Amino acid sequence: MVPGTGCGNIWVLGHKLTLIPQLQGAFFPLAEGNWSLPNRAVEPQLQEEERMVYVAFSEFFFDSAMESYFRAGALQLSLVGDKVPHDLDMLLRATYFGSIVLLSPAVIDSPLKLELRVLAPPRCTIKPSGTTVSVTASVTIALVPSDQPEVQLSSMTMDARFSAKMALRGKALRTQLDLRRFRIYSNQSALESLALIPLQAPLKTMLQIGVMPMLNERMWRGVQIPLPEGINFVREVVTNHAGFLTIGADLHFAKGLREVIEKNRPADTRDPWASSAPPPSTTAA
Q1: CA angle 6, 132, 85 (to 5 degrees)
Q2: What pLDDT shows up at residue 255?
Q3: For labeling, which of 63, 67, 68, 168 is most exposed (least CB within 10 Å)?
Q4: 237 Cβ partners below 8 Å, 6+ apart?
């Protein structure tokens, strides 16, 4: 895997530093080394100078990260049997009762399976009013009898929009998602799409209760920011702009600055016993 390129800037005490001029939150397979997500992000412009350090992240940073997760097949969730919340299990069995009763007795009481699979890379939109993530996913509901092929009850498409709250906690950039918009429709017929309308509100509630906590538990682990030991962020603040967000913070040195520098200085690989005298001259007298 090799890192991609993107857009990110760092400001220290009001001065812009181009430490990594093309910062991207993604890793791509070596087999696709020439592939690149087009960068249409706006160039972040920073006006604040109240904190010691500022980092700006454009929409492209988050889009490239989600593109990477999508290509790796990580944006999918499968819940089977006891993993499906009890209330959601009852709701789905009641909704598809007409299809279930027509099955053989050996299948009727089989564990329920709920599978969500993202169909396209999610997209992030950053505005002064907040950050949203748009996702289109397939939702498959099936029964999974033991030693038999699973029996699909329904396959539908879900359009969802999440609000994303970014926060800097400790040395990690963390995200918390909240489901704002939710719509499902059938892949099979318009008639089934109409039949799914009464299911939308309770299914959204069940997803908020049963699925979102698991998703947020993973998201809240965050992305670690590699600060040296002895340096911490304090007075963190996250500000949204049009197309990018900024994170500002002051630095707190738990140890003396000289001690931190010496501890993180690369080790001297030279032989300490080697003579520093110049080699003897080979010129003939």
Answers
A1: 115
A2: 67
A3: 168
A4: 51, 247, 248, 249
Q: What's the first-to-final CA gap in the chain, in angstroms? A: 59
Q: Given this model, what pLDDT does residue 76 score?
A: 86
Do residues 30 and 2 make contact, with C-beta atoms less than 8 angstroms apart? yes
- pLDDT recorded at residue 123: 92
Apex 215 CA angle, 179 and 170, nearest 5: 105
CB burial class (10 A; 0-12, 13-18, 19+) of residue 40?
A: exposed
Distance, in Å, from the CA atom of 146 to the CA atom of 133, rounded to the nearest integer, reads 37
Pick out the chain residues at pLDDT < 50: 1-24, 269, 271-276, 283-285
The pLDDT of residue 127 is: 92
Residues of the chain with CATH 3.15.20.10: 76-222
Domain 76-222, CATH 3.15.20.10 — does that match? yes
Residue 49 backbone phi and psi in degrees, to 5: -140, 30
C-alpha closest to that of 114 among 207, 214, 193: 207
| Count of Cβ atoms closer than 10 Å to residue 249 Cβ | 19
Residue 178 CA, chain-centre distance (Å), reads 14
Structure confidence at residue 256 (pLDDT): 66
What is the pLDDT, as a whole number, of residue 161?
92
The predicted pLDDT at position 119 comes to 92
List the structure tokens of 151.
């029996």
Place of tokens 């990477």: 68
* Residue 141, phi then psi, degrees to nearest 5: -115, 130
How far is the C-alpha of 276 from the C-alpha of 285, rounded, in Å?
Answer: 24
Q: What pLDDT score does 27 carry?
A: 53
On the CB side of 47, CA atoms within 13 Å amount to 3
Take residue 122 and report the two structure tokens written for it.
């999610």
Q: Quick check: 107 and 128 in contact, CB under 8 A?
A: no
pTM over 0.85: no
